Amino acid sequence: MHLIQLLIPIYDNDGNPFPRSRFDSVRGQLMERFGGLTAFVQSPALGLWKDAESGATAHDDMILIEVMVEKFERDWWSAYRTALECAFRQDEIVVRAIACERV
Question: How far apart, in whole angstroms, are the C-alpha atoms of residue 9 and residue 77?
């Protein structure tokens, strides 16, 4: 079993919030394919990193979506990440797969 975590930005690169419909679409796609998810939307996560070119600290406010899957399909998740990067106009959206087990 794997826990898939998706870190989705709340704002575009100009600081404008993405429309709620964009997040609803992601939620609907994942619900239809996997039958469940957990979305942490009330308290956005804060991502910080050093910009490679300027050295300045950059940041994103994002929501965390988690999906538990029996079988990790790397090719599907890689393609889905690429689709999310287009939909949210991002250079990179973090999608993590963590091996786990239910207790």
Answer: 18
Task: Read off the amino acid at residue 11.
Answer: Y
What pTM did the predictor assign?
0.85
**φ/ψ of residue 87, rounded to 5:** -60, -35
| String of DSSP letters for 33-45 | HHS--EEEEEEEE
CATH 3.60.15.10 assigned to domain 2-99? The reply is no
Per-residue pLDDT tens over the stretch 3-31: 999 999 999 988 899 999 999 999 999 99
Pairing mode, strands 2-9 and 57-69 = antiparallel
